[in-house]
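Issue 218. Parser rejects a valid record. Input:
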Amino acid sequence: MIIILLLPSPSSCHGHGWRRDPSLLPNPFSQLCEPSERASCPQQCSPEHTQRSPASSGSVKHAMTATEKILARASEKGQLVPGENVWVKADILMTHDVCGPGTIGIFKKEFGQNAKVWDREKVVLIPDHYIFTADERANRNVDILREFALEQDIKYFYDIKDLSNFKANPDYKGVCHVALAQEGHCRPGEVLFGTDSHTCNAGAFGQFATGIGNTDAGFIMGTGKLLIKVPPTLRFVLDGEMPKHLLAKDLILQIIGEISVAGATYRAMEFVGTAVDAMTMEDRMTLCNMVVEAGGKNGVVPADSTTFKYLEGKTTVPYQPVASDAEASFLQEYRFDVSKLEPVVAKPHSPDNRGLARECKDVKIDRVYIGSCTGGKTEDFLAAAQLMATSGQTVKVPTFLVPATQKVWLDLYTLPVPGADGMTCAEVFSKAGCDTPAAPSCAACLGGPRDTYARMNEAQVCVSTTNRNFPGRMGNKDAQIYLASPYTAAASALTGFVTDPREFL
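Output the parser choked on:
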């Protein structure tokens, strides 16, 4: 059951209008001094704050959404409304091997060859995309990150040198979005920018996290700030008890199918409700990870005891969680009774091409891929392994397994699968005939060089736990990708067809 509530426009509530489509932001370097001057006058390279006098009538209470509150704090404003452009202080800037070299090049061009980053402890460098390949250009990208980290004395550089044995690299983590969470870089109330569209994954921690381009990232490297247009918020209320055959991936595919890939363009997507309250942090990450597939600027789940418990032992940095005010204005509110939903897939070639898994039972497949920031977390593999163990069957098609991080890889070999007589995921997968879990990385999710593990080099049909199924996304431009939950992926592997997991659960 889905109920859509059309709420009043923020302009009618606050007397401050905003456009539905974001306008182009000013050139971030337009207020800077000339390149030759920047190294000698760094104070001129930061945007100036405008001092405001308090209203003569005294302070006025203004209800805000969680996203507005985070940006207000980061911009040192008392209140914000959608459509405002504000200079926002970054708490973390993340970049990886694909975009890092470009970001570094822009930073040096605009701030000087000898310039220093604004904060060596707030820049996080994570090689993860094109790692285990013989491609010289891909390997050179990691070298550039390493050289920059040494030059800048970057505290958090998760390096890899020995490509033949990832376990020989203790600093190497794997997929940036999962690594950011596991290493304690995701904290409630903070602002995280990353040169990857799925940076919105970190919104699961109750923070503002969004993907940016190399130019914006280069600017942040030098100043620690970025000009942001405050997005309006869409609220998604997910109530009810999750059926045993559903996972968070089903919910976000349901939502994207409902509002389309353009339905949240430059909007914040906030997730609340009893179903969200009951979710683990990895479930919440799955929800927030794919908001960009609906065009969203960011996703956010209010921080709670589940969040705080996850962060124990991961960070010593103090943080301040926020939540939307009861009177906050939302652009729209969508309500879902999750107990009424069924397993779904996103058919080729768009994340909003939603279909019920049971209606695609005649689609013959060639392979299954379980991995990525969206579907390669520990709980994703536990779910897939549990279904396979329950079935007692073996896979009918090649089934590739790519843990997101070294920690996830270790979990596959140490954590017992519920209901599997003490077997680990690795043991269950081996018994079912799956491929041996690969080295942690993004692997085939973004295609990559032709020697990338599990890359689709032929026009085959694949059920995948990844987040995008555009033509060529995983390699061959004629390949067909069905996005699905780990349950549906595992069930499909056992039959050789797109399969509703209820056949095995």
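Fixed in the parser; the record now loads. The two ends are 23 Å apart (CA to CA).
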